[in-house]
Amino acid sequence: MREDAAVSPEVTEDLRRVIADAGITENVDLIARVLVTGVGLGLDDASRLDLKITTAALSEMRAAFRLFAPYEDVPKVTIFGSARTRADHHVYRAAADVARALAESGWMVVTGAGPGIMQAAAEGAGPERSLGVSIRLPFEEKPNAVIAANARNVAMKYFFTRKLMLVKESHGFVCVPGGFGTLDELFELLTLQQTGKAEPTPIVLLDEPGGTFWKGLQRFIDEQLVAGGVISPDDFDRVLVTDSVQAAAAEITDFWRNYDSLRWVGGRLVIRLRSEPTDAEVDELNDRFGALLVSGRIERSGPLRPEREDDDRLDLPRLVLRLDQVQVGALHRLIRALNRLESAPAGPARAA
Question: Strands, DSSP E only, in the chain?
Fold first, then answer.
């Protein structure tokens, strides 16, 4: 491999001319970085296998972005579960029912597009409210009939690109009992939330009536992970374990009752709301959550300058705080408190 090979300024300018000739006028710097990275791989003498992985991943992400683009403003929930679950199983019906309830509330349902729970969720939501991100496997050769009906599916070669799209586009997640794949997705969600690498979102573990699958996992977490000190005692608090379809759907929609979105501006966290809290409510929030701050108080605010420059949800009221980033996992508790304020809107809202 060539040592410290860099793309020359002359080549970079040539690439920018190619971009201009293609008629691209938006995000030119980022498109140029994609092309420069590709040339850099050639300068690195990357192996053919590495180049095949790179090109396949980039192609798959492009296809997925195009699939989701028309539905950018529609809230989405991803439902995870086993491809082996039979249609006569209680959790199959639970997955279909929660998907139907969320679709009736204006949500779209995203699944892995395969059989089992993925088909149940697509059946519940219906073809008009379903999107699929399938994986090419020898025993799952094509998407289920519901997803295929409207061709709203993208097929992936790699699990990592598929997992990206199943998580990136959704504002809530429902997991029903499943195998390694389901547990893999769940623990990735929990890791992203625990570390602050993803914005807070509701996560529901839905079981059949009287089921013990998720309760068994919760017991293992309490007795082994929490007791062993490898996670914090409240790390699993952000998850709802339930056997009620109604509670599962409400957990997803109510999470967005008052909370809208957040943004970091330097060391300050900006939380955008649908309704402005009163002075007394802000004081109560400081009493309850002041320990999460590195300094100062939770305060009401207008849009900060970077938000104004980006025209970023300027019409919404805001709270600004200097959150101790080690405490980022506790954001779920703060968001739930914001959704329960008396000043919050009366009914659940769709995710922004």
Answer: 76-80, 108-111, 130-135, 153-156, 173-175, 203-206, 239-242, 259-265, 268-273, 293-301, 318-323
Domain span holding position 188:
71-254
Both tokens assigned to 104: 């009736």
Q: Which two tokens stand for residue 345?
A: 């809107």
Q: For residue 185, give both structure tokens.
A: 């997705």
Measured CA to CA, the distance from residue 116 to residue 41 in angstroms comes to 40
Q: Is residue 255 helix, strand or coil?
A: coil
Full pLDDT tens readout for the chain, 352 residues: 455 568 999 999 999 999 999 999 999 999 999 999 999 999 999 999 999 999 999 999 999 999 999 999 999 999 999 999 999 999 999 999 999 999 999 999 999 988 999 999 999 999 999 999 998 876 655 667 677 666 689 999 999 999 999 999 999 999 999 999 999 999 999 999 988 888 999 999 999 999 999 999 999 999 999 999 999 888 898 899 999 999 999 999 999 999 999 999 999 999 999 999 999 999 999 999 999 999 999 999 999 999 999 999 999 999 999 999 888 778 899 999 999 999 999 866 555 5
Q: Is residue 82 situated within a structural domain?
A: yes
Of 254, 274, 302, which marks where a domain is finished?
254
Task: State how beta strands 293-301 and 318-323 pair.
Answer: antiparallel
Is 2 within the bounds of a domain?
no
Q: What is the reported pTM?
A: 0.90
* Residues 287 and 240 occupy one common structural domain: no
DSSP code per residue over 187-233: HHHHHHHHHTSS----EEEE--TT--HHHHHHHHIIIIIITTTSS-T
Does one domain contain both 83 and 214? Answer: yes
* DSSP structural state of residue 329: G
User: 69, 98, 116 — which closes off a domain?
Assistant: 69
* Cα 159 to the center of its chain, rounded Å: 16
User: Are 107 and 245 part of one and the same domain?
Assistant: yes
